[in-house]
Prior knowledge:
two-stranded antiparallel sheet; single chain
Amino acid sequence: xxxxxxxxxxxxxIVLLGFAVKNDQPITLRYFFGYEWQSSxxxxxxMFFAAGSAVGVLSMxxxxxxxxxxxxxxxxxxxxxxxLADISEMQQSPIQxx
Length: 98
């Protein structure tokens, strides 16, 4: 199974490398107020992909923090209920004399 994983990684790397080599034409990005930036198409695509990934990860953070708080609250509730169950079992069991 690890061999298949590495074969897929190498294949993906080769495909992306071929994409990068074939799309090395310079492009011009025009901004507001006459600003321009010239770069390779691959670099621009890589930057926009990285920016989109960063926005996606940042948008997941609040939900993840909320879930972690809920998990810790539920674990605390389970601990309290287990302690209460142990106390009630001790109170219900008869005292054994030696």
